[in-house]
Design brief:
Layout: E1 3-7, H1 12-16, H2 19-27, E2 31-36, H3 41-44, E3 52-55, H4 60-68, E4 74-77, H5 82-91, E5 95-97, H6 102-111, H7 121-128, H8 150-155, E6 165-168, H9 180-189, E7 194-197, H10 203-212, E8 217-219, H11 226-234, E9 238-242, H12 245-252, E10 256-261, E11 282-286, H13 309-312, H14 316-320
Parallel strand pairs: 1-2, 1-4, 2-3, 4-5, 6-7, 6-9, 7-8, 9-10, 10-11
């Protein structure tokens, strides 16, 4: 069996989406190592299928020194950028690299021509590693927080009832986030208490929703670590999320998920990835008749056409139905 190095430097959702590759390689008898950035170590540190984690440092030579100790046999590059190329070139080991299909994405964004395969990115990741995976499973994504309900005990006893809905209010770019007034309407119409999750950059949104909502709202934006947030998601009745890493963590826990799509689209292949028997738990909400979608593969800080129809046309009643 082989010692295999997986390369994926970022980000939260993308790394969570690589976890089936880690699991299936390990289940097929291989020792699996992972190279990523320090800020994302938390996602992987408790994963039992990993034999080791390497951190990309500012010094490539220092990073390579760490990796060479394990005498890696093969590299699976799921990031495929200039830095991962330098790592592969320096290691001089056999490798396979993920094809990002950036030209096809460009065609969809700029010409609205969709030649992307109707295949989830997870399955395309697995294709990249297929040489070492004799048999695939249907277990979806993995997330191991290591927190053991600590976040629930520390921050609110009422979260223990499992009768709450998580709203992940963040999003890396503004065009991936529902406007505040619509988030508020969703909060008010949900029949369960609401727990707000997000980073420190989402504090103002969380504070406003907690102050203005007529529902019972617990605002935890900027107050939890990533793994603590994962524990709150783990015990939720359902999760409402934008196209973010929290959506993928919710999928790893096989939650009922309502995902909200603005300037990006599920056709990019990064919608919630669930085992076959749980796929009915995913509901995708998007404005299909907005012809300028997608306007970006990542998102913008404001709508390029200034109307923001892709999010403004989403109806709170449809989200909470």
């Amino acid at each position: 069996m082989a010692k295999i190095l997986i390369i994926r430097f970022s980000s939260i959702g993308d790394i969570v989406l690589t976890t089936p590759v880690v699991r299936m390689l390990a289940k097929n008898g291989h020792d699996v190592y992972y190279l990523t950035k320090e800020k994302y170590r938390e996602i992987l540190i408790h994963n039992p299928y990993l034999s080791g984690i390497f951190i990309l440092s500012d010094s490539l030579s220092r990073t390579l020194q760490q990796v060479r100790i394990e005498n890696i046999d093969f590299v699976i590059d799921l990031h495929r950028n200039f830095r991962s190329f330098k790592v592969k070139a320096a290691l001089r080991k056999p490798a396979r690299s993920f094809h990002k299909l950036n030209f096809y994405k460009w065609l969809l964004v700029n010409l609205k021509l969709n030649f992307l395969p109707e295949k989830h990115i997870v399955d395309r990741y697995l294709d990249t590693a297929s040489k070492f995976i004799a048999q695939r499973d249907d277990e979806g994504l993995d997330y191991f927080s290591g927190e053991e309900r600590k976040a629930l005990v520390n921050f609110s006893s009422r979260l223990q009832s499992n009768k709450y809905v998580v709203m992940a209010v963040g999003g890396q770019h503004a065009t991936k986030r529902l406007p505040l007034d619509k988030l508020l309407k969703v909060c008010n119409q949900l029949i369960f208490p609401v727990v707000l999750l997000g980073g420190s950059e989402d504090r103002k949104t969380g504070e406003a929703l907690a102050r203005l909502s007529v529902n019972q709202v617990t605002d935890l934006c900027g107050r939890l670590s990533l793994n603590e947030s994962a524990e709150v998601i783990r015990y939720a009745a359902a999760v409402v999320s934008h196209d973010t890493g929290m959506m993928h963590i919710a999928a790893a826990y096989r939650k009922n998920i309502v995902s909200l799509w603005g300037s990006t689209v599920p056709a990019f292949g990064m919608y919630p990835y669930l085992p076959s028997q749980y796929r009915q738990r995913s509901v995708i909400i998007e404005a299909l008749d907005v012809k300028c979608r997608p306007c970006s593969k990542l998102g913008f800080e404001k709508c390029p056409r200034l109307h923001f129809h892709c999010m403004e046309q989403l109806q709170p009643e449809e989200i909470v139905a």
